[in-house]
Amino acid sequence: MDKISYHPNAVEKLLIIFLVVQGLMVASAGNFYQDVDITWGDGRGKILNNGQLVTLSLDKASGSGFQSKNEYLYGKIDMQLKLVPGNSAGTVTAYYLKSQGSSWDEIDFEFLGNLSGDPYIVHTNVYTKGKGDREQQFYLCFYVDGRPIREFKNLEGAGVPYPKTQPMRMYSSLWNADDWATRGGLVKTDWSQAPFTASFRNFNANACIWSNGVSSCSSNSSSNNNAWFSQQLDSSGQRVLKWVQKNYMVYDYCKDTKRFPQGLPVECTVKSRK
Ligand SMILES: *[C@@H]1O[C@H](CO)[C@@H](O)[C@H](O)[C@H]1NC(C)=O
Ligand SMILES: *[C@@H]1O[C@H](CO)[C@@H](O)[C@H](O)[C@H]1NC(C)=O
Question: What band does 218 get if pLDDT is binned at 50, 70 and 90?
């Protein structure tokens, strides 16, 4: 299970992303017939069980995907994901939020498959105004339920754009990425195991719907009764974030000095000065 919380707040200006891998908590779920459209995959994506379940499948010819009907500007968005079981090497199950246009904002979770018994990696990225290159990767573990794994602070003052003005849609997809996903592309998809299937349930967008250029939430945060709107990482959240990053992080763009010979991105150096 996996949860994104997306709430650029007028006061705290923090964007906090939670990852929940396993949980008994069931969000009050909507209905996939009302909430999403299957957008590609020629029948490989299916809405089942009266709208309670979506399955996506991948075979040699194609993967598949769906997206939310609504766009949101601020919100807390939950979904339970069941990743491809067994030998999932080469496959990627993606779950992300993205706005439109060439100067888009995006928050990514991509679950990189692996051989049976070898660990999945969750690959994350943040794009603001069309610029990404902010990858962090983590091993999944059974004990990160409800724990924050990444935060993206508002550093507009230092010239780093922040994703707070463009409404985003939720997207999910299952596709082949065996040129890079598993051990950097060394382990290929075993097509004899196809079709690969991932499933999704309990989509819950506790979020402000964007319609005709207006968000359904008031811009006046003190009259906004959504609890997530004023939520921020408290000191115990900060400690958990540090713990996850220390024990499960396997890649951090802010430590990849080879990749940025001209110097690390601004947000990395601002952070380390703290
Ligand atoms: C797959 O397992 C190998 C061996 O444990 C590990 O090095 C790698 O990081 C794992 N994940 C991916 C997505 O490659
Ligand atoms: C914002 O909401 C608060 C509480 O409802 C109200 O007192 C205040 O006047 C509102 N401000 C604006 C600018 O609407």
Answer: low
